[in-house]
Amino acid sequence: MIVIGLVGGIGSGKSFVADHLQALGAARFDADRAGHQVLHFPRVKAALKARWGDVIFDEQGEVSRSELAKFVFAPPPKGPEDLLYLESITHPEIVRLLQQTIEKCHQEQIPLLVIDAALLLKAGWHIHCDEVWYIDAPAEVRWQRVQQRGWNQDHWKNRENSQTPLDLKKRKADRIIVNAGKVEETVAQISQAWQELISSG
Known about the structure:
Layout: E1 2-8, H1 14-24, E2 27-30, H2 31-38, H3 42-52, H4 65-72, H5 78-107, E3 112-116, E4 131-136, H6 139-147, H7 153-161, H8 166-172, E5 175-178, H9 183-200
Parallel strand pairs: 1-3, 1-4, 2-3, 4-5
Helix pairs in contact: 1-9, 2-5
């Protein structure tokens, strides 16, 4: 089985690439979804409550991601410190889920697993990958896309600044998928890469 990790700027289209690989027959590990999942774990909730108290919990006793974001994406120095604490609690749990997914894919003889994770390099999860793909899109295109999520420019910049710099992501990549033009052009690159990997694997 081949494991592919996707990196790129926010709004570059990592999820689009993962969607297409999934349509071709790949399994998928969505780190954002896993990150949401681990916030329901009692041991994670206890650790977060110890730092921030009840203010980050909703009426059902679950973690409110919007309240948590107010802390972890706040300006320096407090925001980055809080983000590091959050990651120190959630990342080991996400890795456990990733390892379970990899093992399950091996057992089911799935040819390819794609890891869709904004923090792939920063968290060190690329060590589980056979290839890292950089999804390339210019800043103006990415900004248009994130506006559709309802983000303002400060929020977008703060999120990007909390991740690995784009030039480093690009240097670490084994393959570059350009996602700045027509959808068909991006799909063609993904399909070609899929064929190369499956035939070589």
